[in-house]
Amino acid sequence: MIIGVLSVWLKAVPERLWHWLVNQSTMVVTVKDDDAAFVWVKEWFLVQKFLKRIRHVDLDTTLRSERITMIPAPGKHWFWFGGRPFEVWFSRTENTQERTGRRIESFTFRTLGRNRPLLQRFVDDVMHCHNKSKGTQSYLYVYDDGWDYVESYSPRLLDSVVLQPREKEHLVQDVAQFRKSKQRYERLGVPYHRGYLFYGPPGTGKTSLVSALAAHFGLSVYTANLANFNDRSLMIAANRVPANSVLLFEDIDCMRSSQSRARADRPSEDNGKKNGSSVNTQNGITLSGLLNVLDGFHAPSGVLFVMTTNHVEKLDNALLRPGRIDYKLYLGKATDHQKLELYRRFFPDSSEMEARGFVEASRSSETMAEFQGLLLALEQGGGRMAGSGCERLTNSDAELACLADMDSVEEQSQDQFRLQAAIVD
Ligand SMILES: Nc1ncnc2c1ncn2[C@@H]1O[C@H](COP(=O)(O)OP(=O)(O)OP(=O)(O)O)[C@@H](O)[C@H]1O
Ligand SMILES: [Mg+2]
User: Fold this and answer.
1) Residue 89 lies in a domain
2) Is the CB of residue 206 below 6 angstroms from any atom belonging to ligand 1?
3) How far is the CA of 206 from the centre of ligand 2 (A)?
4) DSSP per-residue string spanning 344-385
5) Ligand 1 touching residue 203 (CB < 6 A)
């Protein structure tokens, strides 16, 4: 028996020796797909000359929106960097343990020698490449045991979100000011992050504004559905958000115990007794858990926190204080000014009178989402150019017919809204 074990062990010696030698004489960098750097490495591949000679490639439409790009396929590839050969192992596994069947991907880079500065140069090169594209790229990530990159996301254009005069400019100025104030914050010893709250009725542009704002500054959006977190997992997720990103909490009022810190801080008797565990281990976060993420010791640096809600009155004052929420913006019912501007975006050649006539005739649409639905219907029906009847808005019969027609198409546009919400959710 002992001899049997010994002979098995001895047989494995050459292999172990080989692994030991390899480990001693090489350096390795691994990046997994739950880290933001995973996408940065993919972006880096796109600008490497060696990509041209790689014969096994994957098609990717996520890195350069609307364009197909080629990245190395799963498996082993090699290239030169800094005069040294590098091997990259792209691994992709199906995650059979989880219901979602999520694929797990990772890159493992290995190179000869023990020259740490070379490895650092390699990492810096990836980072440099990311920084170069950052001004123009904005990605969306959702959390599922790690930040997953949402392939189907296309960011909004800032111009396409219509607010009250000067509101958008003021907000953009605020973000720009924050982004160039890192050193000032450090000098003053103030944590470098800023909280924004967009509040107001549904369909007024809160989510669209976050997407557009992030895209304008080339920031990626990390969106966390608070219902899927507990205090601990939220802290872990927030810590993994890189600087120069937006961390988005939608419908912040739906968090457990959003109304009272006292209540949130006190584990409910029921929970304590039934589960024998702290309230923090359940799904749903407490107010103090959220406050810790926003400005506790673990708050990520260089991040814009954006929160949205339909019910600002439900929020605790502790959450609303500066340092946690530094900028509040109310997005209300659509004004004529907003409607006119959106109309002109749809029909740039229209006259002032046509635009005003349409706005007048669609008084019943209270939010920009509703008004957009009407415009989509109008546009789909050929718009004013094709003489949809909406041109003659002074004629009340035509007006009613036109709006009735819009109603039916409005249902279709509701689906589009849901689709968009689904992308962002
Ligand atoms: N201010 C706006 N300017 C341009 N489009 C808008 C505006 N507000 C809403 N929309 C349009 O309405 C739709 C819904 O907007 P969005 O999802 O941003 O609203 P929301 O305020 O986040 O709503 P909710 O509170 O339900 O999440 C989008 O398709 C968007 O294009
Ligand atoms: Mg929204």
Assistant:
1) yes
2) yes
3) 5
4) HHH-TT--HHHHHHHHHHTTT--SHHHHHHHHHHHHHTTTTT
5) yes
Q: Judge if 255 and 226 occupy the same domain.
A: yes
Secondary structure of residue 89 in the 3-state scheme: strand
Q: Are residues 170 and 124 in the same domain?
A: no
| pLDDT attached to residue 257 | 52
CATH number for 284: 3.40.50.300
Residue 205 CB–ligand 1 contact under 6 Å:
yes
Of 280, 299, 279, the closest CA to residue 291 belongs to 299
Find out whether 375 and 403 touch, Cβ atoms under 8 Å.
no
Q: Which atom of ligand 1 is nearest to the CA of 250?
A: 27
The helix-helix angle for 2-11 and 13-25 (nearest 10°) equals 40
Q: CB-based contacts of 224: which residues, under 8 Å, 6+ apart? A: 143, 234, 237, 238, 247, 248, 249
Q: Where are the alpha helices (DSSP H) in 217-260?
A: 231-239
Contact 368, 196 (CB under 8 A): no
| Cα(330) to centroid(ligand 2), Å | 13
CA of 202 to the centre of ligand 1 (A): 7
- CA distances from residue 116 to 26, 123, 169 in whole angstroms, order as listed: 10, 11, 46
- Same domain? 163 vs 129: no
What residues have CB less than 8 Å from 410, skipping those under 6 apart? Answer: 370, 373, 374, 377
Alpha carbons 62 and 68: distance in angstroms, whole number = 8
Residue pair 271/283 in contact by the 8 Å Cβ criterion: no
Residue 411 C-alpha to ligand 1 middle, in angstroms?
16
Considering the domain architecture, whether residues 292 and 322 belong to the same structural domain is answered as yes
CA distance 77 to 126: 17
| Domain identity same for 106 and 237 | no
In the chain (425 residues long), the average pLDDT of successive 10-residue segments reads: 68 80 88 84 87 82 68 90 91 66 83 88 88 74 87 87 94 94 90 95 96 92 91 90 92 67 44 39 77 84 94 92 92 96 92 93 94 92 50 36 41 39 35
Task: State the residue range of the domain holding 396.
Answer: 336-424
Torsion of CA 126, 127, 129, 131, to 10 degrees: 170
Q: Which of 213, 126, 223, 229 is nearest to 174 (CA)?
A: 213
